[in-house]
Amino acid sequence: MKRRPMRRWFARVWLLYAVLMFIAVGMIIITFVAAGSGNTGGQPLPLVPRLWLVAALILVILLVMQALLVAMTARFLHRSILMPLDAIGKASRQIGQGNLSFLLPSSSTMEMAEVITAFNAMGKALREALARQEKLEEERRFFISAVVHDLRTPLFSLRGYLEGIEAGVADTPEMIAHYIRVCCEKANDLEHLITDLFTYTRLELLELQPQREHVDMDELLQKVVEDMRPIAESSALTLTARCEGSPGLDTMVVDRRLITRALENLLDNAIRYTPRYGSIAFNWTWSEEHLLLTVADTGPGIAPQDLPHVFKPLHRGEASRNRQTGGAGLGLSIAQQIFQAHGGELSVTNRASGGAMFLGVLPISRT
């Protein structure tokens, strides 16, 4: 239905009524003039009765037209204005009661149709905002439950081994040394988890801003590889590094500590999921505008249903639910946030030859 402004609709209809009224008044005036002026014999003109008849007919038509106009105007106001306004009032009360499932009827009047469209758009925006809030609340509950689980597991193990030492279960120096070593490992797990939680929370709340400085990226990347190589070798893994391209000047303005943390998280993740005697390739390529970094492993890869959720906090695929390889589930989230804080991006895919490959992009900034 084509919508027209109310003022145009009323103006046209009532203009027609005014024109007809003007004609009727003119006909009456002409009739009176003609009736008052006779011929030389004082007799009224023979045209006068006809003029009276025409004037009376026009008056009847005007009365009928006025009645129709009033009825049509009342119907128009009821359907195009009063009913939508009543619907808007009901919808407003529903919103006040927390019910956002409403859809206002359309109107043939342009002004009212614009109000209805805006109100429906507001309702849709409110429903979407409520859905986002419910999703965030669900993620918050999951986050808290996952944190509690990840804290409880090493704490229970730590308490169990300590109680074993206290109860004399470890009755030889070798067993005591083993129990103490396990307790130290669990304490390190707790420290690592708490550090990750603290870092993730600060990055999420934008409290941890990159402290940028001029950094020799080739030197930093080589140092990260050398620091992580003993950890890889302890798991019988081969860690290789290769640089491609030459920017002429390999200095960038980044946060040395955060970038190091992100790359260590990526390599640590690859070490956790790569079977013994596998390999991990860490490569970086320089271009005119970006530094491209890849971490590829020969592990089992990532299940297709887990790929969209890899960077979600505390997400671990079903194959990694054990504490030996599961980690805290925050390392990749932290790495992605660090890349994004530097204006870059971090993504993941599965290689055709097997294994996962993380792709990081950092814009080259030297000022």
Automatic annotation (TrEMBL):
It is found in: Membrane. The keyword Repeat does not apply. The chain crosses the membrane at residues 12-35, 51-74. It catalyses: ATP + protein L-histidine = ADP + protein N-phospho-L-histidine. It comes from the Bacteria. SUPFAM superfamilies: ATPase domain of HSP90 chaperone/DNA topoisomerase II/histidine kinase, HAMP domain-like, Homodimeric domain of signal transducing histidine kinase. It is an enzyme of class 2 (transferase). InterPro entries: BphY/WalK/GraS-like, HAMP_dom, HATPase_C_sf, HATPase_dom, His_kinase_dom, HisK_dim/P_dom, HisK_dim/P_sf, Sig_transdc_His_kin-like_C. Residues 146-366 form the Histidine kinase domain. GO terms for cellular component: plasma membrane. PROSITE patterns: HAMP, HIS_KIN. Residues 79-131 form the HAMP domain. Keywords: Kinase, Membrane, Phosphoprotein, Transferase, Transmembrane, Transmembrane helix, Two-component regulatory system. One of its GO terms (molecular function) is phosphoprotein phosphatase activity. Its EC number is 2.7.13.3. GO terms for biological process: cellular response to phosphate starvation. This is histidine kinase. It comes from Ktedonosporobacter rubrisoli.
